[in-house]
Design goal:
This is Helix-turn-helix domain-containing protein. By secondary structure, the protein is mainly α. The protein contains 9 helices and no strands.
Length: about 190
C-alpha cells in the first residue's frame, strides 16, 4: 500500500480547515453537523476525523489556525494591521468573523472550551505585547502608559471592530479611526501635535 506524503496530509488538513471555517461561520458550532462539514469540505467523515479527533478539536484547530495567522501579522506589523486587514476584506473576513464570534459565544457558555482556549488566546496577547515592547525600545511607543495597558487597549479595540463588522455595520470610514488608534499608542515628540 503506498504511503501518503506529508505534503498530501498537510493539503488535506488545510482543505478540511478551509471548508470547516465556512461551515462554522454559516451555521455556528451546533449547526455545523457532520453532514454539513462533509459538504463544506468535500470529504467523508472518516477523512475529516482522521485528521481531527472530534468536532471540538476541529473547531479549536481552526480557531488556533486563525490565532497563529493573526499573531504572525502582529509580530511583523502590529495589531492595528490585523484590524486594517479585516477592513480590507482579505482572507475571507466574513468566515473569519463568524468563527471569531462562535469562539466568543463558546467562551461565555462552555467552561471546558474556555479552559482549552485560554492557552491559545495567549499567543495573540504575547505577540502584541512583544511587538509593543520592541516599539518602546525603538522610541516609537509612548512611555507614559504601561505596555500591558496598551496591549489590553488594542485587544479591546479589535474586539469592538469584530463586533461592529459582525453586526453588519459599515466598514467605510473606519480607516481614520484605526489611524487614531495607532496615533494613541505612539510616542509624541516635543513640538508635535
Amino acid at each position: 500500500m503506498p504511503r501518503v506524503s506529508q505534503d498530501h496530509l498537510d493539503a488535506r488538513r488545510r482543505q478540511i480547515l478551509d471548508g470547516s471555517r465556512v461551515c462554522f461561520a454559516r451555521y455556528g458550532y451546533e449547526g455545523a453537523t457532520v453532514r454539513r462539514l462533509e459538504e463544506a469540505t468535500g470529504l467523508s467523515r472518516g477523512a475529516i476525523f482522521h485528521h481531527f479527533r472530534d468536532k471540538e478539536s476541529l473547531f479549536l484547530a481552526l480557531a488556533e489556525d486563525d490565532a497563529i495567522r493573526m499573531a504572525d501579522v502582529v509580530a511583523e506589523q502590529g495589531l492595528v494591521q490585523v484590524m486594517r486587514d479585516l477592513l480590507a476584506g482579505g482572507d475571507h473576513p466574513a468566515d473569519w468573523l463568524g468563527t471569531r464570534l462562535e469562539v466568543s459565544r463558546r467562551l461565555r457558555t462552555d467552561p471546558e472550551f474556555r479552559a482549552r482556549w485560554a492557552e491559545r488566546s495567549e499567543q495573540l496577547t504575547t505577540a502584541t505585547r512583544l511587538r509593543l515592547l520592541r516599539q518602546r525600545e525603538a522610541g516609537i511607543l509612548r512611555d507614559d502608559v504601561d505596555v500591558d495597558v496598551l496591549t489590553a487597549f488594542l485587544e479591546l479595540v479589535l474586539e469592538g471592530l469584530v463586533s461592529h463588522l459582525a453586526m453588519g455595520l459599515p466598514a467605510a470610514g473606519l480607516g481614520p479611526v484605526l489611524d487614531l488608534v495607532e496615533e494613541t499608542v505612539r510616542r509624541h515628540r516635543p513640538g508635535t501635535a
